[in-house]
């Protein structure tokens, strides 16, 4: 069981940037692959990006490639999502997740071991 707490969400204009953080409790953060998911109103909770436990491998869903960057600082037990060139369609609650294993494909909720509480990202047009 990994406890995850997201922060950094907020309101931003289209074209702007936000950096989300996910702080993990305990001393085993570096042993987990991690991911970001998002859920827009009335929509499914969808995969955004993932990163291997070492940070050496990353994967992005097509809609965010070239705009978002996932990273981690294992010394700080923290996961990040840098979001640039934001679009109104990026508006969603963003969730940090610890996953079973890194895979270079879109993950599903069944892959998730632990969820954060979510942080709201709103992009105005």
List keywords for this structure.
125 residues, mainly beta, 11 strands, 50% strand, globular
Q: Can you describe this structure?
A:
The protein is mainly β and 125 residues long. The protein is 0% helix and 50% strand. It is built from no helices and eleven strands. The protein has strands at residues 4-7, 10-13, 18-24, 33-39, 45-51, 58-60, 68-73, 78-83, 92-99, 112-115, 119-124. The strands form two sheets. Strands 2, 4, 5, 6, 9, 10 and 11 form a seven-stranded mixed β-sheet that branches. Strands 1-3-8-7 form a four-stranded antiparallel β-sheet, with no helix packed on it. Strand 7 (68-73) and strand 8 form a beta hairpin. The radius of gyration is 13 Å and the shape is globular. It starts with a strand and ends with a strand. The mean pLDDT is 95.
Structural class comes to mainly beta
Rg result = 13 Å
Count of individual beta strands = 11
- Percentage of residues in helical conformation: under 10%
Helical stretch count? 0
- Note the main sheet: 7 strands, mixed
Principal-axis shape equals: globular
Task: Give the N-terminus to C-terminus distance in angstroms.
Answer: 39 Å
Give the topology string: H per helix, E per strand.
Answer: EEEEEEEEEEE
Estimated share of beta-strand residues: over 45%
Q: How would you state the average pLDDT, rounded?
A: 95
Uncertain spans: none
């Amino acid at each position: 069981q990994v406890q995850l707490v997201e922060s950094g969400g907020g309101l931003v204009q289209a074209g702007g940037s936000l950096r989300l953080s996910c702080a993990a409790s305990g001393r085993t953060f570096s042993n987990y692959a991690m991911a970001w998911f998002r859920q827009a109103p009335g929509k499914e909770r969808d995969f955004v990006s993932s990163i291997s436990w070492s940070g050496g491998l990353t994967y992005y869903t097509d809609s965010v490639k070239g705009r978002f960057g996932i990273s981690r600082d294992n010394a700080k037990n923290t996961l990040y999502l840098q979001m640039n060139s934001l679009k109104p369609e990026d508006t969603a609650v963003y969730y940090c997740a610890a996953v079973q294993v890194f895979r270079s494909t879109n993950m599903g909720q069944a892959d998730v071991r632990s969820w954060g509480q979510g942080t709201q990202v709103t992009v105005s047009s």
